[in-house]
Specification:
By secondary structure, the protein is of the alpha/beta class. Helices cover about 25% and strands about 30% of the residues. Helix 1 crosses helix 9 (about 345-355) and helix 7 packs parallel to helix 8 (about 325-330). It is built from 9 helices and 20 strands.
Length: about 400
């Protein structure tokens, strides 16, 4: 049975919750800020994990603001709308530093640089659930639908689509992903969805084809979601690097590889997903750049690599590089590595292996691709000292 408790919040942790301690128990609670005193219903979730449901903020922090979204607190999409944006950035920087220390035993000896942009209407891709005439996101911590008619973090074109879908009251149960370049919208439905489902969306003026900043992006292909920070992400990752050869791992549709080709005489782009690889081939061919696309799993490609490129850039999924790929990167010993990470815990694990083998961090940058949420992107520039490359 839950018990009502008064909690003092110590800090925010990765995942969007605040941490408090009470009678030897660690309690996690959402929608709070460090230094706040709150009242919450506390219940044991499992073993020694306790969670609190926020009832009242007794003593608010100075950075607390009124959320602008009427669905905040119910909708599971955002966790930080109650926090002033500059404070969100500082909290994320602290969380990144702590995760690196706790998971990877990495004590940073440098400042975490920061890149941020417009904190609203930034998303070019959303996933909506359609249930019994309502459209929305799942509620916080559940599979229950939170019906919406707009989303403050989605782009204007996506909000137009949300309004149309909500007004049409579609009589279907489905999950639909919408991706936009602000001129047209790509509709991604489950593979088993009948043709009639696609026709319903087409009738609302939503199209199926999309080009994004010169890149062909097909259904099922990954592309960055923050429409304001894509160029700055690429610039941060590539920096002033130049040379003879570079490898782009987890290349997707070629976002980094094509830009690398302007600085390196030879670029290899490795992508395992078939949809993204076809887009990669198309984009490389259309751009007429010296990029060789390779359709392979990254760990298999690295295991067979006998040469040492001057730069390796990796943008892995949330699971990170993994032990096998880290071992191969250590063996290959490229003088420069760049890791673009969307998960600080797996980044910490990967960095631990690389730093232990002689690599050093030159710069580490937090790029806030996901304002109002706990998610964060990190770009780490690493180099191998000359003596370890011999």
């Amino acid at each position: 049975m839950p018990t009502e408790e008064t909690l003092e919040i110590e800090k925010l942790v990765y995942g969007g919750e605040g941490l408090a301690r009470l009678d030897g128990k660690v309690i996690l609670a959402p929608f709070v800020l460090p230094g706040e005193k709150v009242r919450a219903d506390v219940d044991r979730v499992k073993n020694d994990l306790f969670r609190g449901r926020l009832l009242e903020v007794i003593a608010p922090a100075a950075a607390r603001v009124e959320p602008s979204c009427p669905y905040f607190g119910r909708c599971g999409g955002c966790q930080y709308q109650h926090i002033e944006y500059n404070e969100q950035l500082e909290q994320k920087r602290s969380i990144l530093r702590e995760v690196l220390r706790r998971v990877g035993k990495i004590e940073l000896d440098r400042e975490i640089e920061l890149i941020a942009g417009e904190p609203w209407q930034y998303r070019n891709r959303i996933q909506l659930h359609v249930r019994d005439g309502s459209v929305g996101y799942f509620e916080h911590g559940s599979q229950k639908l939170c019906a919406i008619d707009h989303c403050p973090i989605a782009s204007p074109a996506l909000n137009d689509a949300i309004a149309k879908l909500a007004a049409s009251r579609p009589r279907t149960d489905n999950t639909v992903e919408l991706f936009t370049n602000e001129s047209g919208i790509q509709v991604n439905l489950a593979d088993h969805a009948p043709r009639a489902e696609f026709e319903k969306f087409a009738a609302l003026g939503i199209t199926g084809a999309i080009e994004y900043d010169g890149f062909q992006v097909s259904r099922g292909s990954f592309f960055q979601v923050n429409r304001f920070l894509i160029d700055r992400l690429v610039e941060c990752a590539i920096g002033e690097s130049t040379g003879g050869s570079a490898i782009d791992l987890y290349a997707g549709v070629g976002l980094f590889a094509i830009r690398l080709a302007a600085r390196f005489r030879k670029v290899i782009a490795v992508e395992s997903g078939w949809s993204a690889f076809r887009d990669l081939e198309h984009n490389v061919s259309r751009s007429a750049v010296p990029v060789t696309p390779i359709n392979a799993a990254v760990e298999n490609y690295l295991a067979a690599l006998a040469e040492t490129p001057e730069l390796i850039l990796a943008d892995p999924p949330r699971a990170g590089l993994g032990k096998q790929s880290v071992r191969e990167l250590v063996r290959i010993r490229s003088p420069r590595l760049v890791i673009v990470s969307c998960d600080p815990a797996t980044l910490a694990r990967d960095l631990q292996g690389l730093l232990g083998a002689g690599y050093r961090i030159d710069t580490i940058t937090l790029i806030d691709l996901f304002p109002q949420t706990f998610h964060l992107e990190t770009v780490v520039q690493l180099s191998a000292p000359a003596e370890t490359r011999e």
